[in-house]
C-alpha cells in the first residue's frame, strides 16, 4: 500500500492555450499533484533523501507551467506528471491542472484536467 504527498493549489502564471491571446497575455494555472510512494523508509530514519522533497517537486512543476507554452492542458498535465515521476521514489502521480480563466463565454468557476500516471 502506498502513501501520498499532496501539493495543492500551486498557482503559476503560464501562456498555455489554443487561442493567440492566451499565449500572448497568459493566465494563472492552479496545479494539484498527488505523489504516491512508500514513506516508511523516510519516516523510520527521519531522512529527507528517502522521500519526495515536495519543495523541489513544486519548483519543477512551477518551472514547467511558467515555461514554453503548449496548446492543451492535457499536454501540460502529462508533462507535470512526468516531472513528478522523475523522482525515483515516486511510484505514481496524479496531477490536476486547473484553468480558472478559461476563455469560455459561460459562467463557471473552473476547467480542469486530471491525469494519473505510474511507472511502467
How many domains make up the coordinates? Answer: 1
Straight-line N-to-C gap: 18 Å
Name of the level-1 CATH class: Alpha Beta
Count of alpha and pi helical runs: 4
What's the CATH topology name? GTP Cyclohydrolase I, domain 2
Average pLDDT for all residues: 96
**DSSP strand content:** 25-35%
Instruction: Provide the helix percentage.
Output: 25-40%
| Count of individual beta strands | 4
Q: Do you know the CATH architecture?
A: 2-Layer Sandwich
Side by side, the strands of the main sheet go 1-2-3-4
Broad shape: elongated
Provide the gyration radius in Å.
15 Å
Descriptive overview:
The protein is 32% helix and 31% strand. It is built from four helices and four strands, in the order βαβαααββ. The chain has helices spanning 20-25, 40-45, 54-66, 73-85; strands at residues 3-14, 27-37, 92-98, 112-118. It starts with a strand and ends with a strand.
Question: Strands, helices and their partners?
Answer:
Layout: E1 3-14, H1 20-25, E2 27-37, H2 40-45, H3 54-66, H4 73-85, E3 92-98, E4 112-118
Antiparallel strand pairs: 1-2, 2-3, 3-4
Helix pairs in contact: 3-4
Write a brief structural summary.
The chain is α+β, with helices and mostly antiparallel strands. The protein has 4 helices and 4 strands.
Keywords:
alpha+beta, four-stranded antiparallel β-sheet, 31% strand, 120 residues, GTP Cyclohydrolase I, domain 2, 4 helices
Amino acid at each position: 500500500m502506498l502513501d501520498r504527498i499532496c501539493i495543492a493549489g500551486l498557482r503559476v502564471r503560464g501562456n498555455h492555450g489554443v487561442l493567440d491571446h492566451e499565449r500572448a497575455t497568459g493566465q494563472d494555472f492552479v496545479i494539484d499533484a498527488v505523489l504516491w510512494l512508500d514513506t516508511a523508509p523516510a519516516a523510520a530514519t527521519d531522512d529527507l533523501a528517502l522521500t519526495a522533497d515536495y519543495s523541489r517537486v513544486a519548483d519543477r512543476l512551477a518551472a514547467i507551467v511558467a515555461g514554453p507554452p503548449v496548446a492543451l492542458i492535457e499536454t501540460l498535465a502529462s508533462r507535470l506528471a512526468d516531472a513528478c515521476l522523475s523522482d525515483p521514489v515516486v511510484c505514481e502521480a496524479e496531477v490536476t491542472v486547473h484553468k480558472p480563466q478559461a476563455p469560455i463565454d459561460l459562467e463557471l468557476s473552473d476547467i480542469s484536467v486530471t491525469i494519473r500516471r505510474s511507472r511502467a
